[in-house]
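Anyone up for a design puzzle?
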C-alpha cells in the first residue's frame, strides 16, 4: 500500500454525486482519494495510486486522453474501466489500452482495496486441470451440462468464463441482483462454502434455482430451470408429518416458509360454532372462523380471547341499536 499503508484511490469520473460519495466513504475509511475534475488538474506524485477507476462516459470523450496520461504514468495495469454496462466497444477499449479489467456500476466501495491488492493477479489464468486424471478438458464436460455455468471474479462480480448454456442465457440485470444477494451472504460469512436461492422466472414461466459456490478468488455460479409446471420444494413439506404435535408441526412449517420463500406471517383458521346472535342469550348460529395458529404478529390465537372479542363486538352493536 501507499503512504502509511493507506489505500490510495484515483477516481476519474464525471458523475459528481458518485465522486462525492466515494470521497466521503474514503474519508471515513482512512483512504487517500484523488478525484480531479479535469485532465490538467492531476499530476503523478510520489504517492502512486493503488487503484485507478476510469469512467468510460467522461464528458467530451476525454477517456482516451486520460488513458494516454495514465500510460505515461505507468498506471494502466492498475486501471479499471467503469461503466453501467459492458459492451463490445468497452471491451475493445480495455484490450487496446491494456487495462486491468472492467467494473460495473454501481460499485461496492468496500471492495475497492481488495481489488487494488489483487490487481496484479487479475490477469493470471484460472488454475488449470493439468494435474487431473481426466482424459478430456473440464470445459468440455461443463459445456455438456444442462445448467448455465459461469465462473465469476469475486472482486468484480463479472463473468470471466461461461459454458455453452450460459453463453446463450447471459446474465440479466435481475440475475445480477440475485448474484449480489448471494455474494453478500458468502462475503459476510467466510465459513459458508455455498449458498442458493429459488426465484420465479417470468420469461420462462418456471422456477429458477441459482447456486453460488466459493472457489478462493472466484465463484462458480449455476442457474438451473425447473421443468414447466413443476413445483419447487413441495416434497419438503412431507418431512413435517413426523411431528406428532400439530402446533409444533405448524411452527416448523412457518419457519421453513420464512427461510425458503420469505413468508413472514402464517395464519391458520378453523371452523367453529361460536355464539354470534346475542351476548346475553348465546345461541349458536352459522359456523364462524377462529384462529388456530399464527406466526409473525396479529391476534393471539386463543379461543377464549377470540370469543371475548366477539362478545365485546356484539355487545357494542346491541348498545348502538338500542
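Challenge accepted. My sequence:
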Amino acid at each position: 500500500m501507499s503512504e502509511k499503508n493507506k489505500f490510495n484511490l484515483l477516481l476519474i469520473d464525471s458523475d459528481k454525486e458518485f465522486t462525492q460519495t466515494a470521497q466521503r466513504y474514503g474519508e471515513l475509511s482512512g483512504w487517500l482519494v484523488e478525484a480531479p475534475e479535469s485532465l490538467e488538474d492531476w499530476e503523478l506524485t510520489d504517492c502512486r495510486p493503488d487503484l485507478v477507476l476510469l469512467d468510460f462516459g467522461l464528458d467530451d470523450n476525454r477517456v482516451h486522453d486520460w488513458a494516454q496520461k495514465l500510460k505515461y504514468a505507468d498506471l494502466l495495469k492498475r486501471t479499471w474501466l467503469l461503466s453501467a454496462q459492458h459492451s463490445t466497444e468497452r471491451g475493445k477499449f480495455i484490450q487496446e489500452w491494456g487495462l486491468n479489467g472492467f467494473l460495473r456500476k454501481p460499485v461496492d466501495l468496500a471492495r475497492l482495496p481488495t481489488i487494488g491488492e489483487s490487481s496484479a493477479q487479475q490477469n493470471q489464468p484460472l488454475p488449470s486441470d493439468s494435474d487431473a486424471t481426466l482424459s478430456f478438458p473440464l470445459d468440455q464436460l461443463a459445456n455438456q451440462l444442462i445448467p448455465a455455468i459461469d465462473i465469476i471474479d469475486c472482486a468484480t462480480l463479472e463473468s470471466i468464463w461461461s459454458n455453452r448454456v450460459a453463453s446463450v442465457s447471459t446474465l440479466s440485470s435481475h440475475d445480477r441482483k440475485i448474484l449480489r444477494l448471494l455474494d453478500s451472504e458468502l462475503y459476510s460469512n467466510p465459513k459458508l462454502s455455498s449458498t442458493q436461492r429459488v426465484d420465479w422466472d417470468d420469461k420462462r414461466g418456471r422456477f429458477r434455482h441459482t447456486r453460488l459456490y466459493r472457489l478462493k478468488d472466484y465463484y462458480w455460479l449455476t442457474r438451473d430451470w425447473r421443468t414447466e409446471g413443476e413445483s419447487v420444494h413441495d416434497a419438503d413439506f412431507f418431512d413435517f408429518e413426523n411431528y406428532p404435535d400439530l402446533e409444533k408441526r405448524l411452527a416448523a412449517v412457518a419457519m421453513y416458509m420464512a427461510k425458503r420463500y420469505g413468508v413472514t406471517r402464517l395464519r391458520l383458521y378453523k371452523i367453529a360454532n361460536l355464539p354470534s346472535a346475542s351476548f346475553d342469550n348465546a345461541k349458536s348460529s352459522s359456523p364462524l372462523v377462529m384462529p388456530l395458529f399464527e406466526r409473525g404478529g396479529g391476534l393471539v390465537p386463543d379461543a377464549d380471547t377470540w370469543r371475548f372479542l366477539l362478545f365485546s363486538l356484539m355487545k357494542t352493536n346491541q348498545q348502538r341499536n338500542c
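A detail worth pointing out: The two ends are 84 Å apart (CA to CA).
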